[in-house]
Specification:
Blueprint: E1 11-15, E2 22-23, E3 28-32, H1 45-60, E4 69-70, H2 76-95, H3 98-120, H4 142-175, E5 179-180, H5 182-191, H6 197-200, H7 202-205, H8 207-210, E6 216-224, E7 229-237, E8 252-259, E9 265-266, E10 281-285, E11 289-294, E12 302-305, E13 314-317, H9 321-330, H10 334-354, H11 373-384, H12 390-396, H13 402-407, H14 414-431, H15 433-443, H16 453-476, H17 480-491, H18 495-507, H19 513-524, H20 528-539, H21 548-555, H22 566-577, H23 581-584, H24 590-603, H25 607-614, H26 627-639, H27 646-656
Parallel strand pairs: 1-3, 4-5, 6-13
Antiparallel strand pairs: 2-3, 6-7, 7-11, 8-9, 8-10, 8-12
Helix pairs in contact: 1-2, 2-3, 2-4, 3-4, 4-5, 9-10, 12-16, 14-16, 15-16, 16-17, 16-18, 17-18, 19-20, 20-22, 24-25, 24-26, 25-27, 26-27
C-alpha cells in the first residue's frame, strides 16, 4: 500500500495476561504472548502464520486505525474490517503461488462460515456498522472483523486491484489525521473510480454496512440444446434478524465460469455480446432476481459460481454428484474445487443424519459405510495428484466440521452429527489406508525447519495422514501406526511434527496417548504457551462415553491451571464448550451446567472473557430435545444472577429473547 511508518521504531510489549490478541496503541503495541513469542521447538506452523498475521495487522493499524481513526464506536469496522483485509492480503502475498494463496482464502472463509454466519443467524446478529450497543466489548466480533473485511474485499473486486490502490491513496489524502466513518471510506474508493460498478451502485452497496444477516443466493440453470443457450437465474434473499424484519437487496459480486462435462473451461459470451470473452467473469447481482443468458454453448455446462468466494453469502444450488465431481477434478478456481469436495461430504452427512433407517449402536457409533465409491475415489485422486499443493490436499481431505454441519440443519441433534462425522472419517481412514501411508512417506521429512507455505503444507498433510492411519489402526487393532506416531512424537525436530503426532494419538484414543501427554508436560512445563496447547488438546478430544467432561474438570484442578489467565481459561473451558460440540452437548445437560458455572465464575473476575464464553450457547434454539431445554435452563440460570456485568447480561438476555 506504499505507506511508510512515521515512527523511528515499531515497538511492542508482550504480556501473558491479556484478553485480546493484540492492541495497536500508537508507539507501543500491546501483544498477547501467544501472538509474538515463537521458536520451532515451541510453536507450530499455525502459530507462526498467526503471529505473522497479527503483527502485520497491528502494524497496518498505524494508518488504518491510528492516523485515520473512527469517529465513534459504531464505525469500529472502519479500522478493524479494513485492517483484517490488509493483513489477509499481506499473508496471501507472502504465500506466493496461486494455490498457496487459495489455501489462505479457504482458511479465512472457514472462519467466516463456522463463526460469522452463525452469529448472523443468532440473537447477537448485528450489522457491520451496529445501530446500538449496551457494552462495546461485545462488538469486537467476527461480524465487525471478518465480515467487515469481506465488505472491503467486495469493493476491491468491484473497482479492481489498481482501482482499489487509487481509492486507498485518496482516502489517506482526504482523511489523514481525522476521525471518520465507514461512509467516508466507501466514498473515497468510489470517488477514485467514478466509472466503476461501486460508484454506480454506492447507495445500495452500503446496505452491507447497515443490514445484518447473511444473504442467500439461489441459482438455477437451464440448457436449451436447440438454441445452444444456457440461462442462469440468480435470486437473492435474506432472513429477518433482531430489529430488522425486512431487507433491501444487496449488491453481490458473483465471479463465475462454465465448465464442460469433461472439465474444460468454456469461453463466456452473453446474448448481447458480439464475441466470446474470458472463461471467468464477475457479474453484479443487484435485484431480487436476475437472469443471465450465455450463447454458443454446445452442451449442458457445469456452472462454477462464487469463485474465490467473491461475496459473503450462502450459495444454494442443486448440483448433481456428477457435477460436483467435475468441479472437484477440473475447476480452474481452487476455492471452488475445495468447495465441491465439501459439498459432496456435506450432502452425505446431511442425508445420513436425516435418514432414520440408520441407527447408532448402544455406544453411540455407526458401523455403516456412508461414503460411496465415487467420493472415495475422488478423494484418492486429490491425494495422489502431483500438481496440487500439499496444503490444499489437506484442506480437501478434511471433512466439514460438526459446527458447520449443524448450521445447515433446522433442528440439531449434536450427538448424531458427531457420530455420523466420526463414522465418515473412520471410513475415509480405512478406505484410503494405502494412500495415507503413501502421503505420510512422501511428506514426513521436510528438512530443516522453515514455516514457509510449501513445507508447512507438507507437514499439515503428513500430520493428517498420521492421524488417519492411527484412526484406522484403532478399528483394525493394528499397533504399528500408533507406535510410529509415538516414536515421531519423541524424536520430532519441531513442535508442528511433535504436536501432530500427539494429536494423532489423542484423536484416535490410543493407549499411548496417556504416556505421550505425560511426557509432553514434562518437556514443556516451563513454557506457558505450549502448556496451553496441552490443555486444549485434551479438552477438545473426541468424546468416548462421556469421558471428556470429567477430564476437563480434572484439568481445572491441575496445578498449572488458572482461571485468572485468559489464555489458560480459553485453552480448557473454550476448547470444551465452544470447540467440542460432541462432548459439550450431553443428553444429561452436564455440559451446560458446567458452562453456566464457568460463565458466572469468570464474570466476577473478567467480564469480557465471560461474555465470549456466554456466546457458546447462542444457537440453543436450533437444538433438538433434550438439549434445547437443558441449554435454555442453563442460560436462564445465568440471566437470573442479579450481579451480572453488562457484558454477560447483554448476551444472555438477547439469547433468551423470543
Amino acid at each position: 500500500f506504499g505507506l511508510p511508518l512515521d515512527l523511528e521504531r515499531f515497538m511492542i510489549v508482550a504480556t501473558s495476561d491479556f484478553n485480546m490478541g493484540a492492541m495497536e496503541n500508537k508507539g507501543l503495541n500491546i501483544f498477547n504472548t501467544k501472538y509474538v513469542l515463537a521458536s520451532e521447538a515451541t510453536a507450530t506452523d499455525t502459530d507462526f502464520a498467526n503471529i505473522e498475521s497479527v503483527v502485520g495487522h497491528e502494524y497496518f493499524h498505524n494508518w488504518t486505525g491510528n492516523r485515520v481513526t473512527c469517529r465513534d464506536w459504531f464505525q469500529l469496522s472502519l479500522k478493524e474490517g479494513l485492517t483484517v483485509f490488509r493483513d489477509q492480503e499481506f499473508s496471501q502475498d507472502l504465500a506466493g503461488s496461486p494455490s498457496a494463496r487459495a489455501v489462505k482464502r479457504i482458511e479465512d472463509v472457514r472462519v467466516l462460515r463456522t463463526a460469522q454466519f452463525p452469529e448472523d443467524a443468532g440473537p447477537m446478529a448485528h450489522p457491520v456498522r451496529p445501530d446500538s450497543y449496551i457494552e462495546i466489548n461485545n462488538f469486537y466480533t467476527v461480524t465487525i472483523y471478518e465480515k467487515g473485511a469481506e465488505v472491503v474485499r467486495m469493493m476491491h473486486t468491484l473497482v479492481g486491484r489498481e482501482g482499489f490502490a487509487k481509492g486507498m491513496k485518496l482516502y489517506f489524502e482526504r482523511h489523514d489525521g481525522q476521525a471518520v466513518t465507514c461512509d467516508d471510506f466507501a466514498s473515497a474508493i468510489a470517488d477514485a473510480n467514478p466509472t466503476s460498478d461501486l460508484a454506480r451502485l454506492l447507495p445500495a452497496f452500503k446496505r452491507w454496512y447497515s443490514q445484518a444477516g447473511t444473504p442467500h443466493v439461489h441459482a438455477t440453470g437451464n440448457y436449451d440444446a436447440a438454441a445452444r443457450t444456457y440461462t442462469l437465474t440468480l435470486t437473492q434473499s435474506c432472513a429477518p434478524t433482531p430489529g430488522q424484519s425486512t431487507k433491501e437487496p444487496f449488491v453481490i459480486p458473483v465471479e463465475l465460469g462454465l465448465l464442460s462435462a469433461s472439465g474444460a473451461a468454456l469461453p463466456l459470451q452473453m446474448a448481447d455480446e458480439s464475441a466470446p470473452g474470458a472463461a471467468s467473469r464477475t457479474v453484479v447481482l443487484t435485484e431480487p432476481t436476475q437472469t443471465l443468458t450465455f450463447v454458443h454453448v454446445d452442451a449442458e455446462p457445469v456452472p462454477s459460481l462464487l469463485r474465490n468466494f467473491s461475496a459473503p453469502v450462502v450459495l444454494d444450488i442443486d448440483y448433481t454428484d456428477a457435477q460436483l465431481l467435475t468441479l472437484l477434478a477440473h475447476d480452474a478456481d481452487a476455492f471452488n474445487r475445495w468447495e465441491a469436495g465439501q459439498r459432496l461430504a456435506l450432502r452425505i452427512a446431511i442425508n445420513t443424519i436425516a435418514d432414520s433407517a440408520y441407527q447408532a449402536s448402544a455406544n453411540g457409533t455407526f458401523d455403516h459405510k456412508f461414503l460411496d465409491a465415487d467420493f472415495i475415489e475422488a478423494m484418492r485422486t486429490v491425494l495422489r495428484n502431483p500438481a496440487l499443493d500439499a496444503a490444499f490436499k489437506e484442506l480437501v481431505l478434511t471433512l466439514p466440521s460438526e459446527t458447520y454441519i449443524a448450521e445447515q440443519l433446522n433442528v440439531v441433534d449434536p450427538q448424531r452429527i458427531h457420530a455420523v462425522r466420526e463414522a465418515m472419517r473412520e471410513q475415509l481412514a480405512l478406505a484410503l489406508q494405502a494412500d495415507w501411508e503413501w502421503a505420510w512417506e512422501q511428506n514426513q521429512d521436510t528438512g530443516g525447519y522453515r514455516p514457509d507455505p510449501v513445507s508447512s503444507g507438507r507437514r499439515a498433510l503428513s500430520g493428517l495422514a498420521l492421524q488417519m492411519l492411527c484412526i484406522a489402526a484403532r478399528r483394525t487393532g493394528d499397533v504399528v501406526w500408533p507406535g510410529k506416531a509415538y516414536q515421531r512424537f519423541k524424536v520430532a525436530a519441531n513442535m508442528t511434527d511433535r504436536f501432530n503426532a500427539l494429536t494423532a494419538l489423542v484423536a484416535s484414543g490410543s493407549e499411548l496417548a496417556a504416556p505421550a501427554l505425560a511426557r509432553f508436560h514434562t518437556l514443556f512445563k516451563d513454557e506457558p504457551l505450549v502448556i496451553d496447547k496441552w490443555f486444549a488438546l485434551q479438552a477438545g478430544a473426541p468424546d468416548r462415553g462421556g469421558n471428556v467432561l470429567p477430564a476437563v474438570r480434572q484439568l481445572m484442578q491441575h496445578p498449572d491451571f488458572s482461571l485468572k489467565n485468559p489464555n489458560r481459561a480459553r485453552s480448557v473451558i473454550f476448547s470444551y464448550c465452544s470447540a467440542n460440540p460432541g462432548a459439550f452437548h450431553r443428553a444429561d445437560a452436564a455440559g451446560y451446567v458446567f458452562w453456566s458455572d464457568r460463565v458466572i465464575e469468570l464474570d466476577a473476575i473478567n467480564p469480557q472473557v465471560a461474555a465470549r464464553l456466554a456466546r457458546a450457547l447462542d444457537r440453543w434454539k436450533k437444538l433438538a430435545e433434550p438439549w434445547r431445554s437443558g441449554a435454555r435452563e442453563a442460560i436462564a440460570r445465568v440471566a437470573a444472577r442479579p450481579d451480572l456485568s453488562n457484558d454477560v447480561r447483554e448476551v444472555v438476555t438477547r439469547a433468551l429473547a423470543e
